[in-house]
Amino acid sequence: MTSALAPFLSQAAALLGPRGLTCDADLVTPWLTDWRGRFTGTACALASPATVDEVAALVRLCAAHGVPIVPQGGNSGMSGGATPDQSGRAILLSLRRMTAVLALDSAARQVTCQAGVVLQTLHDTAAAQGLRFPLTLGGKGSATVGGLISTNAGGTQVLRHGSMRALVLGLEAVLPDGTIWSALTPLKKDNRGFDLKQLFIGSEGTLGIITAATLRLVPQVADRIVIWAGVPTIHAARALLLHCESVAGDALEGFEVLPQSCLDAVLDHVPAARAPLAAPHPWHALIEVVADSASAATLRDRAEAMIASAFEAGLVTDAALSASETQAEAFWLIRESIAPAERAKGTAMQHDISVPVAAMPDFLDAAVPAVEAAFPGTHAAGFGHLGDGNIHFHCIAPAGSVRGEWEAGPGKAISRMVHDMVTQWHGSISAEHGIGQLKHDELARLGDPAALALHRAVKAALDPNGIMNPGKLVSLAPNPANA
Questions:
Q1: Cα distance between residue 290 and residue 93, in whole Å
Q2: CATH class held by domain 6-94
């Protein structure tokens, strides 16, 4: 504890009590490194308030002392957005004690909960009422509602239900001056100016601290079928997507694509994994169709007819339909294991990017050979959510590359090249993982000047002292390299 921070920490301890504030290194240290292990910082303390009033009081105290605040949900982010810097002045703010489900209206299909509720808990709570929250991802056992909203998380069900931006009906947040702004009651029509909740969705804790939300629920799925299809090209996969959208309509819940190299990596890495099809294929599509209780009886017939017509159109060369929930989960496990499997193969640069949906096949056809030609020995592969243009573009280092050295040298140059290509294709350098500190400088370099100016204007208006998650997303001052 530095002498300069002693008065602040003393007052914070009095405000939050021993359960709400700790400086114990054994308790604080596990939260100082991001999930990927790329960033490690220091903090003067870990704060865990139990109520929105305690959050507001703590923020006012931080504002008075000029102490930066780094909000942290489940610490499962991919871009270092919840990790403090090395100064040691920041306080980590966790809402893990704020885990109450405040209300659930089954008829309205809405749930209001505090920001510390874990996604898996939300799924279980909705399921108990015959409903579901239609967003899932690999980190559902640790990701929190507040973190998901702050990063505008996506997942595998975006095709049908949208990202968090589409699922948030109301919001409560504490502003940088300690003011509580509450708009938890959802209205179908409200023409009183700006939709303020949208400012905080995807803002990565730079404008305030989300403390509660009202979220949209949908009916529980009565049955689902997951289809694994081998396709000859990525363009055929795109045509297959359009075919499935036309035939299945709202029953189409997910559509993912991956090349054979990604499947091979999983088969090598996961002992229990089995190839869904008898022979290899250049590309694979993972398709999920669902039904409610009224249409569940005919789902398999409709799925089989959909794939049969795709065969006739030459869009599919082989396919397997899940015969049980166990097999459906096994298909999805392959998709969810790609990232860890490729990390196990060696050092890699993993990019979360997006391009216009219709352009995704052309982009992959152009980007993969371009990167491999520019960096001999590197293997590039793109996979992900074909239905929303979100590509997870992984570039695996040549054999023998030294972890750390390669990322800082050729790996950094590869990322710059990938981001340049994405920008030229009118895409985004961050599709669903956020900017955080990982892409902060790249956003400043490549972002549209008018958009960056608007971001900075909003930041300056709400957080003029820059205490909310500094160094993440966008800084108050323009980046000199981009001036």
A1: 39
A2: alpha beta
Domain 101-219, CATH among 3.40.50.300, 3.40.50.720, 3.90.950.10, 3.30.465.10: 3.30.465.10
Query: Residue 2 and residue 151: Cα distance in Å, rounded?
Result: 32
Contact (Cβ atoms closer than 8 angstroms) between residue 38 and residue 438: yes
| Dist CA 391 CA 322 (whole Å) | 25
Of the candidates 81, 2, 88, the one whose C-alpha atom is nearest the C-alpha of residue 42 is 88
pLDDT, position 303 = 97
In 236-277, beta strands by DSSP E: 252-259
8 Å CB contact between 355 and 391: yes
Tell me the C-alpha to C-alpha distance, in Å, between residue 190 and each of 105, 108, 171, 181, 193.
Answer: 21, 18, 14, 17, 8
d(CA 129, CA 282): 43
CA 85 to chain centre: 22
Q: How many residues does the chain have?
A: 483
Closest CA to 64 of 116, 12, 129, 135: 12
Task: Report the relative pairing of strands 390-396 and 283-291 from DSSP bridges.
Answer: unpaired
Which H, E and C letters describe 403-431, residue by residue? CCHHHHHHHHHHHHHHHHHHHHCCCECCC
- Common-topology check for domains 6-94 and 101-219: no
What pLDDT, on a 0 to 100 scale, did the predictor assign at position 138? 77
d(CA 154, CA 137): 8
Q: For residue 11, count other CB atoms closer than 10 A to its CB.
A: 15
Flag residues of the chain having pLDDT under 50.
Answer: 1, 478-483
CATH, domain range 346-424: 3.30.70.2740
pLDDT tens string 338-369: 988 887 877 889 999 999 999 999 999 999 99
Spatial separation of the C-alpha atoms in residues 319 and 18, rounded to whole Å: 58
Between CA 160 and CA 254 the distance in angstroms is 7
Q: Is 269 exposed, middle or buried (0-12, 13-18, 19+ CB in 10 A)?
A: middle
End-to-end CA distance of the chain: 38
CATH label, 223-338, candidates 3.40.462.10, 3.10.129.10, 3.50.50.60, 3.30.70.2190: 3.30.70.2190
